Amino acid sequence: MASNEFQPLQGMSDIQAPEIYLWRMMEERARALFTCYGYEELRTPVLEKLSVFQRSLGDTTDVVKKEMYSFKPSKHEIAMRPEGTAGTIRHLAGRGEEGLNARVFYIAPMFRYERPQAGRKRQFHQVGVEATGEANPLADAECIALQKSLLDSWGLTGSKIQISTRGEPSDRKPVADGLRDALRPFEQELCEDCQRRIDENVLRVIDCKNPDCQQIVDRIPSAIEFMSETSRAYLDQVVAALDSMGIEVVVNPKLIRGLDYYVHTVWEISHSALGAQDALAGGGRYEIALGKKAIPGVGFAVGFERAIMALEACGITAGQFAPQGGVWLVSLGEAALAENMKLAAELRAKGVRCGIELAAKSMKAQMRKADRSGAGKVIIRGDQELEKGIAQVKNMAEGTQQDLTIEEILRDA
After folding, report:
1. How many domains does one find in the chain?
2. Phi then psi for 266, rounded to 5 degrees?
3. What are the pLDDT digits (tens) for 360-387?
4. pLDDT at residue 119 in the model
5. Average pLDDT for 143-165
6. Are 132 and 142 in contact (CB under 8 A)?
7. Which of residues 296, 319, 342 is at a domain's end?
8. Bridge partners of 265?
């Protein structure tokens, strides 16, 4: 058991081999897929002004009220980013017209002060996209299709998509008023948090996990019933576009994503590999006001830690993506080591994965390292091989061995 002196802070993790190979696979496939959809990578700072998140996420959200790491080192109060959208939109708002029609993605750590649990950490990692532009059902459908394609590319096929709507901004008051009126007769039966939420943020009552609150929510009209015909038609168009792409979704009026910036389409993706708590990822259309600008767009995020739990439950492990192939140089004697150093440099310059033991070790010890490295070939040189200008080349998979000149080795590398 490692000493606590060398452990990271609670809720944070060191990510090392072999686990890192799974992360790299996910990052590489994400970047390749996003490029196909015309997205460019964006890296924003970990620290932002607190106001960026207050204005974007809403003062009454749990993220802002309870979960942000914030401090005041100078005249500005600063926060470590708890999610990726607000900082991305802050950046795009500063790009003028170009930022109003942009496609960007991010892969970055986020920070929330909450109780660490399986798949949820205080430093966690997300991959996400943001596509700015005026509300368009086809853009929302394409974004959902992209997120599903991302999960499929990782090996998380069979995910389920639930979709709903937050309606237009003009729907917010009639929805809130309608839900409050419907909930008032049951107010004393709600949990303490939901009694407070009726006035503070009534939509949060809808997705409360308390079974008694859920029974009450089932007895009142859904939020969608208080929305305009335009909003309901918008949702129908998103569902129809997804259907035309062969993507099945379930409309769930009780799906209420918790951030204030959402308008129109919201969705959540689940996967059975996660068991009872099967929520995997989600996204939605938003309208974020920063200063005098209101930036509309649509986007999603996927948590790496949560996705890795699902991958491992599906039998997809880090070892499957460990580096394989390349060569390992075995040196028998100081002269051979000196020559193998030169050979290693030449092979690496050609892009060949190449390992070498830099201290005097036995043949057996060096071969063990070669085997652990996953090298496809081992190149062995000692004094005799140096005199003849050759090397013994062993194929690790086939167990065969042949003598080749250094010129032949470099030519075939």
Report:
1. 2
2. -130, 150
3. 999 999 999 999 999 999 999 999 999 9
4. 59
5. 97
6. no
7. 319
8. 165
Are 129 and 238 contacting, i.e. CB atoms less than 8 angstroms apart? Answer: no
Structural domain range at position 44 = 4-168+227-319
* DSSP states of 208-253: ---HHHHHHHHHS--GGGGS-HHHHHHHHHHHHHHHHTT---EE-T
In a domain, 195, yes or no: no
Smallest Cα–Cα separation from 121: which of 11, 279, 9, 8? 11
Both tokens of 318, joined, read 């880090």
pLDDT digits (tens, 9 = 90+) for 306-341: 999 999 999 999 999 999 899 999 999 999 999 999
Amino acid at 275: G
HSE (side-chain half, CA atoms, 13 Å) at 152: 11
> CB neighbours of 18 closer than 8 A, spacing ≥ 6?
318, 319, 322
DSSP state string for 99-155: GGG-EEEEEEEEE--S--BTTB-SEEEEEEEEEESS--HHHHHHHHHHHHHHHHHHT
Query: Which residue among 267, 289, 319 closes a domain?
Result: 319
Percent of the chain with pLDDT over 70: 95
Question: Pick from 105, 126, 129, 161: which is nearest to 306 by CA?
Answer: 126
Three-state SS at 269 = strand
The H or E element spanning position 70 is strand 70-71
Q: For residue 382, give the nearest of 347, 341, 335, 345 by alpha carbon.
A: 335
If asked whether residues 133 and 47 sit together in one domain, one would say yes
